[in-house]
Protein: Thiamine-phosphate synthase
Amino acid sequence: MTVHDWRRGVYAITDAGLLPDDATLIAACESALAGGLALLQYRDKSRDAERRHRQAAALASRCARHGVPLIINDDLALAERLRREGHGGVGVHLGQQDGSLREARRALGEAAIIGATCHARLDLAAQACEAGASYLAFGRFFTSRTKPDAPPARLELLAEAARFGLPRVAIGGIDADNVRQARRAGAELLATVQAVFGRGEPASNVQYLRRQLEDG
Ligand SMILES: Cc1ncc(COP(=O)(O)OP(=O)(O)O)c(N)n1
Ligand SMILES: Cc1ncsc1CCOP(=O)(O)O
Ligand SMILES: [Mg+2]
Structure:
């Protein structure tokens, strides 16, 4: 099994609206993984804990086979549970309302990947860095169908965030037409829902995004 560098490339995020049941979710993620992801995030806002655990565990096994870390959105307890169950590559992504990064670091240990939402704010990035985040996510940079009301950010922010020395994630409306622009502005990781899972075959979508990045 090849272990990829999770610090650069395409970061795909699932969406329960686009991938409503286990079979659709798993097939789409397997396809995206085959296309060559850096990271996969499980993002499901439902309150159905049983379904969230079942789906996340299924994805964690597939991710492990591809040497790709699985990141759980919002839910430190679920990430801890999966790690206890043997899914060692599982990390967590926390937004500003999603709990303490410090606590997540304590709970998951030094090696876990812990992501932090910083919107368009370098002060939040500084705090996240101090609290032990593994990467800093900024955005939204473009019009997002998935989260249209996310606070907007300027691409120039990415260069300013280089000072933290952590991988920078660009999110929000990232697609094949703008992914190179976001990369050139400084983002190492390009996070997207729609450009991977919105239409077509996820594997081809990921490969196309990667080609744009490699050519740029
Ligand atoms: C990689 C990445 N970046 C940002 C977010 C947004 O997190 P948050 O602000 O907590 O919003 P929700 O995703 O929870 O709606 C993310 N999930 N992933
Ligand atoms: C979760 C999130 N946070 C800021 S924008 C966004 C949604 C990203 O989805 P898309 O790539 O479809 O714009
Ligand atoms: Mg959140």
Observations:
- The chain has one domain: 9-215.
- The pocket of magnesium ion (ligand 3) is lined by residues 73-74, 95, 98 (CB under 6 Å).
- The chain has nine helices and eight strands.
- Residues 49-66 form the longest helix (18 residues).
